[in-house]
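Researcher: Go.
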Amino acid sequence: MAFKGFGPLGQQFFRELGLNNGRAWFKEHRFEYEAELRDPAEAFIADLGDRLSGLYPDIRFDTRRNGAGSLMRINRDIRFSPDKRPYKENLGIIFWLGEGKKVESPAFYFHVDADRCFLYGGQHVFPKETLARYRASAADDASGRRLVAVLDKLDSQGFPCFEEPAYKRVPRDYAADHARADLLRYSGMGVARILEPAAILHPDLVTACADDALRMKPLVDWLLGIN
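Model: Structure:
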């Protein structure tokens, strides 16, 4: 089934879930989640995944509902969390590259919650070995300058850096006044395009996201080079 747009009540569902995050309420309103969000998401995954395959033939995506595929489970793992809300208050879809964990790999990520919609391109979490290579590459004059140029161009095109520095100080193996000291404080790197809520209601969302992914490709390629 081709993607025809997310349902017009999808974001409203998340607003109400935020006020009633419990199993009884969700059971009563499950049909709204499935009709407005989950079912359109499966069509979106298939259609955008096919488009992204033109950029990256090995990109990974599928429509499994158990959390192993592109669609993130709406159920939260609360076993070891003090936050006992049983459901996530957002829709998350990921298209990832490489053999590592999908949340620790270069990826494109689509997000909808009560207030925001965006497409992200990058690597949200650097595993330990990748973090070391990221720092070395960011510190290197040639590859570091290339990363700065890519980020500056994306920012000028409406794709600002989505991440925040994870560390207060520059890692001790690097000079505190390094030319790219700010980049050395990150533990992940990515940019995002914020979407208007109305944009997610239309079939051409797939084309818009594919076009945005093409613009993000230089950053994703840089990240693939360190993985």
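Model: Residues 92 and 111 are 5 Å apart (CA to CA).
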